[in-house]
Fold this sequence. Notes:
By secondary structure, the chain is α+β, with helices and mostly antiparallel strands. The protein is 50% helix and 12% strand.
Amino acid sequence: MSDAVRAGAVRAGAMADFLAAAGWGDATVAPLPGDASTRRYARLTKGGVTAMLMDQPQQAEAPTAPADATPEQRRALGYNAVARLAGADCARFAAAAAYLRGLGLAAPQILAADPAHGFVILEDLGDALFADVLTQGGDEPELYKAAVEVLAKLHATDAPAIIGPDKPLFAYDGTALIAETDLLTEWFFPLALGRAATADEIAEHRGLWRAALASLNAERRVFVHRDYHAQNLLWLPARQGVGRVGLIDFQDAVAGSPAYDLVSLIEDARRDVDRHVAAAAASHYLNAMRAQGTPLDDATFRHEMAVMAAQRNAKIVGIFARLHLRDGKARYLALLPRVWAHLARDLAHPALADLGAWYDRLIPPEKRAIAEQKAS
């Protein structure tokens, strides 16, 4: 028996023990398709009742770091610690779910958990992902309006220092943000240019990003979901108000800019959001913030949206290139043209002129299109 087969058998046995202890030992287990994560999900069915099983192998991800770790200590632990990702920490997901539910938002209830072994049973919110509902003719303006109302509710208060016992809400700081934009030079350069970025190119890229990020208003930090888009939102029309939007995949939440989740929603890497819907969503968010007594300065917020959108899209370019080159997941190449189109529009903002010039010089449009050619 190979080590992989042996490890799989041990994992299956641990899962069976967990399900039995949680009262789901006789449930039918139907695995769901995976994506870019090491987490696996399955739907449990027992006596007409369903729940979701999260299976997160504890050694599948690099470790995180304490909230007070220095940048050097975080770098020594690897990318998850630098970028403030949850890694294999199921307890962080459970803590975030409890925090969101405490605000009246539709995060799944945790029914049972064994964080030490990486198993969680959670409420089944169904299959009506925004992305699927919209593909089937759903009302795009209605869904996006509901999604931004959730953000306004979430942003009514400042980010908490902690979201659960021993679970601080990490700051989405400059170290994390720059580590994410570094993914573009590390992985897209080899894909599109056929070479590694030079030390000077990497240093110049970092310097330009530091300058852009330094222009942001750091006074207000809110709970940032970090992957707030149509593949991670579920439409629950039988519920009321903000409860109509089911929330999943929030384990990497951080304390950061109010603009981040909004641009994640309207500059979706996986689907084209109607430009009028996107503009209306941004305006509705600002109106909702004003109506609840937490107004944001329009011009300052629009500036922050441009910077955060550019940062996120630069990161995604790097992640999708990495998924192809390192993990053999070529399907992500087909998404790169959309992400580059978002990034080009973001960089057209006057505050990002220097960064835009750097990208035009080092990765001109014809080089960005190489990824599209590889995907075809």
